[in-house]
């Protein structure tokens, strides 16, 4: 069993690496292309692979220490379904949000004022083109699909050696669909870190979108996916009355033999 300090440090490091590489790839793409969003399909594919590959690496390197949640929605879903104690949630959440802020600071350090101008890889959506309901629904479904895949591959009945590949791959797939709608946060900490550092650096922020689109739907989507997975994956035995389940031949009554007939 790893200590709380080790698990906390793993979550801080993992979330920081996720934010540095994932949202950092957004800034790098914009800087190299000399433009601002929206992205081309090729841009989106490259960014989604940056997220997927770093998550794959983190699952294999940190999974054995903390479980590599690196996402408050994952921790919340696991707690809701009693896979982790609720007492562990504050430690994991604090570590994840601190890590996200550190990762965003790293982007700022690498790209300087340009990083702030280009948004530090923040997640947001155009309210003139996408409604709050559609954005919240996209984050709920996207996060739910991620949690569903995570629970499926870490199930003891599944080939656990493929966990990193499957989780990283599903992140790529989800970002390709949800990315153009909301930026595909799929992670409340990932959305929070760049937002906070952008505010500190004097850049544009989208705090009004954070709670109703990136925080609450992410947590709800994770919990719903965990409950749905348990409902579908838990084997159930249907008890049937014996007479309905088994057929017997009719019994033949054999008459008793009188004692006097026995010689």
Protein model, in words:
By secondary structure, this protein is mainly α. The protein has a single domain, classed as Glycerol uptake facilitator protein, CATH 1.20.1080. It has 9 helices and no strands. Helix 1 (4-33) packs parallel to helix 4, helix 3 (72-80) runs antiparallel to helix 4 and helix 4 (89-117) packs across helix 7 (188-200). The chain is globular, with a radius of gyration of 26 Å. The N and C termini lie far apart (78 Å).
Short description:
By secondary structure, the chain is mainly alpha-helical.
Short key terms for the protein model shown above:
263 residues; mainly alpha; Glycerol uptake facilitator protein; 9 helices; globular
Oligomerization category of the chains in this entry: single chain
Averaging pLDDT over every residue, what do you get? 89
> Outline, from the CA principal axes?
globular
Order of helices and strands: HHHHHHHHH
Top-tier CATH class? Mainly Alpha
CATH superfamily label? Glycerol uptake facilitator protein
Distance between the termini: 78 Å
* Proportion of residues in helical segments: 55-70%
Largest sheet: none
CATH topology, by name, is Glycerol uptake facilitator protein
Share in β-strands: under 5%
* Overall tally of structural domains: 1
Number of strands: 0
Going by helix content, strand content and strand pairing, the class is mainly alpha
Poorly predicted parts: 242-248
Q: What is the level-2 CATH architecture name?
A: Up-down Bundle
Alpha carbon gyration radius: 26 Å
Instruction: Give the helix tally.
Output: 9
């Amino acid at each position: 069993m790893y200590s709380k300090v080790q698990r906390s440090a793993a979550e801080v490091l993992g979330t920081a690496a996720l934010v540095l590489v994932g949202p950092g790839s957004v800034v790098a793409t914009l800087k190299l292309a000399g433009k601002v969003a929206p992205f081309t399909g090729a841009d989106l594919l490259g960014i989604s692979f940056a997220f997927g590959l770093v998550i794959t690496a983190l699952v294999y390197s940190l999974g054995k220490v903390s479980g590599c949640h690196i996402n408050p929605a994952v921790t919340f879903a696991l707690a809701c379904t009693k896979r982790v104690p609720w007492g562990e949630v504050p430690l994991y959440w604090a570590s994840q949000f601190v890590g996200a802020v550190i990762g965003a600071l790293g982007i700022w350090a690498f790209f300087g004022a340009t990083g702030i101008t280009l948004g530090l890889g923040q997640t947001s959506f155009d309210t003139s083109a996408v409604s709050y309901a559609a954005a919240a629904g996209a984050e709920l479904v996207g996060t739910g699909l991620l949690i569903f895949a995570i629970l499926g591959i870490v199930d003891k009945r599944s080939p656990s050696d493929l966990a990193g590949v499957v989780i990283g791959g599903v992140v790529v797939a989800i970002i390709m669909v949800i990315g153009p709608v909301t930026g595909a946060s799929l992670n409340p900490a990932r959305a929070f870190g760049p937002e906070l550092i952008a505010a500190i650096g004097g850049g544009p922020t989208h705090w009004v979108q954070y709670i109703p689109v990136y925080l609450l739907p992410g947590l709800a989507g994770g919990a719903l996916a965990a409950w749905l997975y348990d409902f579908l994956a838990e084997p159930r035995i249907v008890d049937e009355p014996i007479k309905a389940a088994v057929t017997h031949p009719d019994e033949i009554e054999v008459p008793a033999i009188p004692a006097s007939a026995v010689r």
